[in-house]
Automatic annotation (TrEMBL):
Name used for this protein in its record: Copine 8
UniProt cross-references to PANTHER family, sorted A to Z: COPINE, COPINE-8
Domain C2: 86-224
Keywords annotated in UniProt: Calcium, Membrane, Metal-binding, Repeat, Transmembrane, Transmembrane helix
Pro residues bias spans: 491-502
UniProt GO molecular function: calcium-dependent phospholipid binding; metal ion binding
Length: 508
């Protein structure tokens, strides 16, 4: 909100230079009634003492504690007495009760930094808590910057996205001065709410960050866990109330692209006899084997981006019943016409059943399963679908020349390849990738040795979380690089839901 008038009566012959500019923020508590409210600021002239309207906040509906996003930015003169008057107005009068206190107004002022930058940001949510009894949630975000006294000042609100647990909010532009007043490491708190018509918005959760961290989302992407402290204190197994992603292109594209996830598992004899505890495929009644851990760790995260949760699951390097033929591209569920499994749990079940029916053999050929997925990816050229292939193997690639060619060809397609090496075998994915990276159209293949993520204390959950984080970290950049190289731009976002009487978003 810019100045509408000067605080003092302007005299060009005797004008003084303001010492600085200050930003005035208003918070009002315990208003006696629930009606649309606005606060008007008046300034008093130095000479005639007349009160003139300087500006007004946005209108806020239905709340006892209106927290105004709109700010008043004033010239501050050290040598002058500058009187201000704040009028809090309701569309319907309070019908006041004599002697009854109708509310408290708190005025906070902060000297403004000379920072003139603005930043464009966008957020999307994933698996937020369901708050509406007959629906999902109507989420919106509220941004606060921290103050020196430990309090927080509101600086932005997004629009409401109706009836979804996976919202995509519209991109917005905000002055960096409003977010952090030029201090890139100042704490910024972001709260997530479920909008209610009566103003009693339900708190979903919150997280803290900084402008320095948020700004990385313009070139990479940031994922934040939304945490409700009360729920976390009451529930031992509570993880979060959903996640938020900060990256404009990623938010636009992921919301409009179908992610197709395929698993391929190594059934070569070098893994050892599945009946023996020394085997990488050993099915212990007490804990997951390394194949199952890698599959569950990566799959349980990426499945949230696959709308139908039906995953093709393939195996390679085994002899199949009934004739003992060797296959490097077979369906784990035994149905080559329909290799789809229902969710990661379905994939795990098909994997366990395959171990009981096939004979581990060899060699370790990757190219057949890569080409399998590539055939489907090659048929999609409009950016509406993207394919992710997870290959879990115990080590050295046998068909290196063919695999090299397959990966290079796949780099032209809407497809990413994740190769996770399990077991003690040497698996130098970095040098392997380097040897053919010059031929890539783009980087679309990730190599990860699982042993690097094993927690020394034996905490398998932590091991799986570390693996999933690093394995999936490159997927967004690979996804966006494909969209950019093909010149595919996201389709316009659908118009957001806007509560009656409220603007889509409030600019400062």
């Amino acid at each position: 909100m810019e100045n509408m008038a000067s605080i003092g009566d302007f005299d060009p012959l005797n004008a003084t230079i303001p010492a600085t500019k200050v930003e005035i923020t208003l918070m009002i508590f315990n208003v006696f009634c629930l009606f649309p409210a606005v606060c008007v600021l008046y300034t008093q002239g130095m000479g005639n003492k007349e009160w003139r309207e300087f500006g007004r906040t946005e209108v806020i509906d239905n709340t006892l504690n209106p927290d105004f996003v709109g700010k008043f930015i004033l010239d501050y003169f050290f040598e002058e007495r500058q009187n201000l008057r704040f009028d809090f107005r309701l569309e319907k009068s309070l019908g006041g009760i004599p002697g009854k206190k109708c509310g408290t107004i708190i005025v906070k002022a902060e000297e403004l930094n000379n920072c003139r930058e603005s930043v464009m940001m966008q957020f999307c949510g994933n698996k937020l808590d369901k708050k509406d009894f007959f629906g999902k949630s109507d989420p919106f975000l509220v941004f606060y910057r921290s103050n020196e006294d430990g309090t927080f000042t509101i600086c932005h609100k997004t629009e409401v996205v109706k009836n979804t647990l996976n919202p995509v909010w519209q991109a917005f532009k905000i002055p960096v001065r409003a977010l952090c007043n030029g201090d890139y490491d100042r704490t910024i708190k972001i709260e997530v709410y479920d909008w209610d018509r009566d103003g009693s918005h339900d708190f979903i959760g919150e997280f803290s960050t900084s402008y320095r961290e948020l700004s990385r989302g313009q070139s990479q992407f940031n994922v934040y866990e939304v945490v409700n402290p009360k729920k976390k204190g009451k529930k031992k197994k509570y993880l979060n109330s959903g996640t938020l992603i900060n990256e404009s292109s990623l938010c636009f594209c992921l919301s409009r692209t179908q992610i197709n996830f395929t698993v391929a598992i190594d059934f070569t004899a070098s893994n050892g006899n599945p009946a023996q505890p020394t085997s990488l495929h050993y099915m212990s009644p007490y804990q997951l084997n390394t194949y199952a851990m890698a599959l569950k760790a990566v799959g349980e995260i990426i499945q949230d981006y696959d709308s139908d949760k039906m995953f093709p699951a393939l195996g390679f390097g085994a002899k199949l019943p009934p004739d003992g033929r060797v296959s490097h591209e077979f369906a784990l569920n035994g149905n080559p016409q329909n290799p789809y499994c229902a969710g990661i749990d379905g994939v795990m079940e098909a994997y366990y059943q395959s171990l009981k029916s096939v004979q581990l053999y060899g060699p370790t050929n990757f190219s057949p399963v890569i080409n399998h997925v590539a055939r489907y990816a090659a048929s999609v050229k409009d950016g509406s679908q993207y394919f992710v292939l997870l290959i879990i193997t115990d080590g050295v690639i046998s068909d290196m020349a063919q695999t090299k060619e397959s990966i290079v060809n796949a780099s032209c397609l809407p497809m990413s390849i994740i190769i996770v090496g399990v077991g003690p075998a040497e698996f130098d994915g970095k040098s392997t990738r380097t040897c053919w990276s010059r031929l890539y159209v783009r980087n679309s293949c990730s190599f990860v040795p699982f042993r690097d993520y094993i927690d020394r204390t034996g905490n398998h959950i932590l091991s799986m979380a570390r693996l999933a984080k690093d394995v999936l970290a490159e997927i967004p950049d690979q996804f966006l690089s494909y969209m950019r190289t093909r010149g595919i731009k996201p389709s316009p976002a659908p118009p957001p839901y806007t509560p009656p009487g409220q603007p889509i978003q409030t600019q400062i």
